[in-house]
Amino acid sequence: EVTLVESGGGLVQPGGSLRLSCAASGFSFSNYAMTWVRQAPGKGLEWVSSIHAGGSTTGYADSVKGRFTIFRDDAKNTLYLQMNSLKPEDTAVYSCSAGMKRGQGTQVTVSS
Fold first, then answer.
1. How distant, in Å, are the alpha carbons of 27, 49, 84 from that of 69?
2. CA distance linking residue 99 with residue 93, whole number of Å
3. Cα(68)–Cα(83) distance, integer angstroms
4. 3-state DSSP helix/strand/coil percent for the chain, to nearest 5?
5. Which residues are CB-neighbours of 73 under 8 A, at least 6 positions away?
6. Strands 34-39 and 106-110, how do they pair?
7. Whole-angstrom distance between the N-terminal and C-terminal Cα of the chain?
């Protein structure tokens, strides 16, 4: 069974940093492109970032480019999202996905 479990969310002040993790199991993680998406209160799902299998190619939404970094550790079957210079508008539930499967998400709240 494919399982994706996110962690690392929390409450942080504007300008702060968080690192999210996504622990994957039940599939050949290293062979899959992985994606982070987010959903803010009252809004639709927003693509944040993706990384190809092997990690050599990444992509970012304009809203997070230069502030967020996606990376993966295939030996640990784990996907990461390093988030710096956080803004209140980054407040959302962040989820990782592999193909059609998406995890439950972790809450990130940016507030003073």
1. 24, 8, 8
2. 19
3. 4
4. 5, 50, 45
5. 80
6. unpaired
7. 40
C-alpha–C-alpha distance, residues 42 and 85, integer Å: 23
Give the number of other CB atoms < 10 A from CB of residue 82. 14
pLDDT for 14-38, tens place per residue? 999 999 999 999 999 999 999 999 9
Summarised one tens digit per residue, pLDDT across range 42-61 is: 999 999 999 999 878 999 99
Q: Helix, strand, or coil here: 40?
A: coil
The conformation of residue 30, written as its DSSP 8-state character, comes to G
Q: Would you call 90 exposed, middle or buried from its count of C-beta atoms within 10 A (0-12, 13-18, 19+)?
A: buried
Using alpha carbons, select from 11, 19, 18, 53 the residue that is nearest to residue 35: 53
